[in-house]
Fold these 2 entries.
Entry 1:
Amino acid sequence: MKGLKKTGTQFPNIGSLILSGTAINEQTSYVKNNEGNFFHWGRRGPSVHLNYQLPSQTEAEWFYNEVTVPKGEDVIGSYFMANGFAEGYFGIQVNSATERRILFSVWSPFTTDNPKDIPESHKIQLLKKGKEVHTGEFGNEGSGGQSYLKYNWKAGNTYKFLLRATPGTPIPRPNAADGTVAIEYVKDSTTTYTAYFFAPELNQWQLIASFERPKTQTYLKRLHSFLENFIPEYGDRSRKVLFSNQWVCDTKGNWTELNTARFTTDNTGNVNYRKDYAGGLMDGSFYLKNGGFFSNFTPAKTMFTRKEAGKKPNIDWSKLP
């Protein structure tokens, strides 16, 4: 709603909107109340995700993905998240009409929305960062370490994302009785996450940041991508993104292509407050779409399998910054 003319000093505030008539029934989707701050989430619109199916017993040290935002789909407030994992996320944003970012964040193992509450022993430590990369802390949706590079990426171009996880060194514990050696992981061991970004305009890999997460001993798990709108005023705009050529590389250097993904939406979609969410296959890639109140939503938990491209990443590890 937009006020066009007023006789007083301001337009009235809308306290409520009543929907009625024969077109309104129990299947009608709208935000019914503000429990759980849903007026905010409802305006933002549903977030959508692709959960890549990782072969069991795979120790994934590297995760590679390619992202293309079609021309006209780079709406302000969009986060096209490429390389998500159990402890963080890495992708590109449209922050305003004049600013775009490459964003990489890692959650602290201490659960809080206020980074000031995190004990020193649970803080994410910055090990290194790339040129002109900003680093700090974030909150509100969990807390932890954050890094971003202001970079004017272009809609229509394909960008590459590479993420690495290296757990701390396990300690061997010899058994004096039988001579065997058991591997023990230290309780306060750490895992280091390092993110690299490849822009075709520059034709080289750039370091975004490397973070150390305490009390963590793992390789990459729960690999996913997502699309969200983080500015409520742009929830009435539709946006779309393509994800293609997903691969993982294990600790022995073996590459495996990930060509099956499970589509899901967030609670805004799950409770049917909004149904403008979709995902699936398009032009040999996975795609995600949300916002703008379009029809023909994709049922959550649908599995999609794209045709294997067989385009294994060609990366010279020695030249990574």
Entry 2:
Amino acid sequence: MAGAACAFAQVAQAADAPAGSASEAAASAMLDDFAGNAGRLRVFLQAMPKGGDLHNHLGGSVYAEDFLKVAAAKGMCADAGITRIVPGPCPAQLQIGPMAQKDPFTYAKLVDAISTRGFQKGIGPVLVSGHSQFFSSFGKFGPAADGEDARWLADAYASAGRNNLVYLELMHNPDTLTGFMVAASDAPLGEAELAAAYKRDLPEVEALLAATSAEVTREEQAARQRLACGTAQADPGCDVAVRYIFSGMRGLPPQVVWRSLLAGFALAHRDPRFVGVNIVMPEDDPVALRDYDLHMAMFRFLEGKYPGVKVTMHAGELALGLVPPRDLESHIGRAVASGARRIGHGVDIAYETAAPETLARMAREGIGVEINLTSNAVILGVEGGVHPLHLYRAMGVPVMLSTDDEGVLRSDMTNEHVRAVQQQGLHYADLKDMARNSLEYAFMPGASLWADRRYAAVVPPCAGGLSSSACKAFLSGSEKARLQAKLEINFDRFEHSLDRFKNGQGAAGD
């Protein structure tokens, strides 16, 4: 969210070079030493710079308790079974406000019902699948979510700042375009009709774009006000650069999916705050499975109309047993072939018929994978050695950690790093590489700071240091490079402040 001038000033005042090998080695040794101590590891990783979060749904980033605060303020209630939020009026014992104060056990049951809290290890019984609990949660807190996007934006910015991110790509569909999407015809739609549908629907969506951008501006202004941005009490989230991804809705009828994707491409073409388009909803939904080829055709058609709009796709968010084996054979490969520059989840890659070829292409073309460890464990039951993280890395495919739906999943970016260390055996250099990947493969505009994807050397203008006149001129023309330079500065500062994590030096001590 920080402006270009502010970001440039931070870079210009920084040291001339990234952290040296000695300080990085010390940080690496310290992380390895802390890996078996959950508390010390969390403190260390909380402070560690983390780059960007490229896979974060605004609607799922909110914790149940925050939805319940809003619901209480609006006089909303729990239903009779304590399974969801419903509008009032209702009996006193079901009113959320009094319940939170006087009946903590029933309140706790409601928190469990509208999140995956009962699916964290050691907390409560598992009575339904994590997959069903996760996807059903959104409808259960929906009434409290309406009209509160500015509040949720503020919470998302604040979480990013609290977890030492410099950049956030947030999946967010503004309300102004919702009516256009849901007003779609229920008539069939095939690939041959896409050109006619584009000619028919484009004028209507373009007429809504100015109002959509104005809506987002109001939301951002309100969010920044909530965080006291521009004041001495500004939340750290005020300094996080934020861009948005618009999401198509794969589980709905074809005309609705088409309109959602058209709206996303048209908005991203018009408003630079929207840097890409995705496709969401459960990939195992019968409609999503039936229409997968049609959805890929929609992407290819719209990419031809809007070649400057970047695409990331949820693909391969499937597991053996969730769907028949035949449904695991090709989704990631087809997404890559249909223009995806990043893949969200990518969990079932080992089951794809052409996995070696797809992995080779992803490595060759720099098509990254947004890795969501908590999400994959809770929703798909895929974790530890079964997770394909190491497969991707071994094949040279760039990967980066992300949160997915941190509120519903009861996680945050630091927790994703803890999982990466304790469950995937990653080390400091691995995490640092993934943080750099998160900016290198982000969709924000501008040239990279790095001369190649190995991060071995910066571009020639910055070879003399980040504060050299040539580097300043280069950074002034690239938002991506400015954020990458900011991350390197943050790493340098972190690696030169390790004494505070040692015994007797602060919170990290035993």
